[in-house]
Specification:
Organism: Flavimaribacter sediminis
InterPro entries: Peptide/Ni-bd, SBP_5, SBP_5_CS, SBP_5_dom
GO molecular function, one term: peptide transmembrane transporter activity
GO cellular component, one term: ATP-binding cassette (ABC) transporter complex
Structural class: alpha+beta
Keywords: Signal, Transport
Length: 525
């Protein structure tokens, strides 16, 4: 296997595969990923890149398959037994990586820990906020009581990795990052993690779903698109994620490679400060302080009209996306078919700015990540040029995702580019996460970094989450999306495509939720 050059470049020693009796072992594997995890503390960040890293090590009670369908994991069955109580039967015979048995006490410990990790840029509290009580009936049965009728609790449980009580009690995020507490039940064991470098994993031969055919995995952070593609072409890595649009056709035509792609559940959008009277990166063109223009819906609509979504898709994404008009994608339950993708009309945008009192424009700084989404830095630059054409003087600042998200959560930006992934496959997930009024205690609006608030969106979303009638839940979600659309609460841009590439001879299971999982990689039979 051609690992020496990349290992040398990263200051790592090449691995050697050692066969074990009864296990089919292929070569060790190197995976190149565009965005590194923020942490290997499984409860530090629910952003997909961090979730992917820890999902290699930890399991959830319920998991989602590649098509986002709920399937058993550490829980083998679940049933609503009445009065807001759910009974979950836990998988017996499962052991932690250190050999200790998995029990209901680990689940209860996880429920206490997950919402309370300090300094989380994307906290897990929203996924457990509806639980009023959780108790162990026996070692392999738990009862969960929800505050309100909550059919969505099963989707929420699929988001929360279960950690061991014996390893996790008293453990801080640093203890997970250095391996002291990184004891999971998942398909791979933690070996080491070098932030900005490599997450090294070793196969869990006792994994309850069956062991991987690969003994060792290196997941290498490779934020530079050209370098990541070059590493695949040279044979230094076996799989890469986030195939850059400009390289797609070259890789697709290469007989020594395979392309794996699937529609994405992520919607790219612009988030705006719709709350503060004075916003940190908005001034008059002479630099003087002004009232925040983004408080005015006409200004937000003007910004949307300034964006040529199709041009961005065609020129920067090689056509691997489609224009968006709402947060939920067209395959999701609760998608509103009456909402059209945002129109492109810069002349109308100028009229709206004049009506709003900003005929002469103003000055903004547009922020975004430069290693998280497809063509993200280029898209931010393109948006700046489009805003300039309607009279808004626009500066650009991009940064690595692990810097961008904490700053965004601290509300350091006025207008910024990012994406939301409704991996649960339902519209209410995005409504709750991004568009409901921020309420930390109730778990509402944890990613509402612009602090948009509309009581009607809140009411409709809560009703949607509380009904067991799937059709009614979809109708309520669609109605809530319509309210937010008319407010221009956010500016949806596009739904992107997930694309991976591997060496010939490998098979990869592409996922709609963007996660790059080592367990999804195998050799072609």
């Amino acid at each position: 296997m051609k690992m020496k050059s990349i290992m040398a470049a990263l200051g790592l020693a090449a691995m050697t595969a050692v066969a074990q009796p009864g296990i089919s072992v292929a070569e060790d594997v190197v995976i190149g990923v565009r965005t590194e995890a923020a942490s290997v503390d499984p409860h530090f960040s629910y952003v997909a890149t961090s979730k992917a890293a820890v999902t290699n090590i930890f399991d959830t009670l319920i998991m989602r398959d590649k098509d986002l369908q709920l399937t058993p994991a550490l829980a083998t069955s679940w049933e609503h037994i009445g009065d807001g109580v759910w009974e979950l039967k836990l998988r017996e015979g499962v052991k932690w990586h250190d050999g200790e048995p998995f029990t209901a006490e680990d689940v209860l410990f996880t429920f206490e820990r997950a919402p309370n990790v300090p300094n989380s840029p994307a906290p897990f509290g929203q996924f457990l906020s509806q639980i009023s009580e959780a108790k162990a009936v026996d070692d392999h049965t738990i009862h969960i009581t929800t505050r309100n009728p909550s059919p969505q609790i099963l989707f929420d449980l699929a988001e929360v990795p279960i950690v061991s009580k014996h390893a996790g009690e008293g453990a801080a995020t640093a203890d997970y990052n250095d391996g002291k507490a990184t004891i999971g039940t998942g398909p791979f064991k933690f070996v080491s993690w070098q932030p900005g470098g490599t997450l090294r994993l070793a196969r869990n031969d006792d994994y309850w779903a069956g062991p991987s055919e690969f003994e060792n995995i290196d997941i290498v952070a490779m934020p530079n698109d050209a370098s990541r593609v070059a590493a695949l072409l040279s044979g230094d890595v076996d799989l890469i994620d986030s195939v850059p649009p400009e390289s797609y056709e070259t890789l697709e035509k290469d007989d020594g490679l395979e392309i794996w792609k699937t529609p994405d559940v992520y919607t790219a959008y612009l988030h705006m400060d719709t709350d503060r009277e004075v916003s940190p990166f908005i001034t008059a063109k002479d630099g003087s302080e002004i009232k925040n223009p983004l408080l005015n819906p006409k200004v937000r609509e003007a910004l949307s009209l300034a964006i040529n979504r199709q041009a961005i898709i065609d020129r920067l994404m090689n056509g691997l996306a489609q224009p968006a008009g709402q947060l939920a994608g067209p395959t999701m339950t609760g998608f509103n078919p009456d909402i059209e993708p945002g129109a492109y009309d810069p002349e109308k945008a100028k009229v709206l700015l004049k009506e709003a009192g900003y005929e002469d424009g103003f000055k903004i700084t547009l922020h975004g990540p430069n290693n998280r989404y497809v063509a993200d830095a280029q898209i931010v630059q393109a948006l700046a040029q489009m805003f300039e054409r309607i009279g808004i003087e626009t500066e650009v600042e991009t940064m690595p995702a692990n810097v961008f998200f904490p700053r965004g959560s601290n509300r350091e930006f006025s207008i910024f580019f990012l994406a939301w992934g409704s991996a649960q496959g339902t519209a209410w997930h995005g409504l709750r996460g991004v568009l409901m009024t921020y309420d930390k205690e109730k778990g509402y609006g944890p990613s509402n970094r612009g602090r948009y608030s509309n009581p009607e969106v809140d009411r409709l979303t809560i009703e949607s989450m509380s009904t067991f009638d799937v059709d009614e839940a979809a109708r309520l979600s669609a109605e809530a999306a319509g309210v937010a659309f008319r407010d221009f609460a956010i500016i949806p841009m596009h739904y992107q495509m997930n694309v991976w590439a591997s060496k010939k001879g490998f098979e990869y299971e592409p996922r709609q939720d963007q996660m790059t999982l080592a367990y999804g990689l195998s050799t072609q039979q």
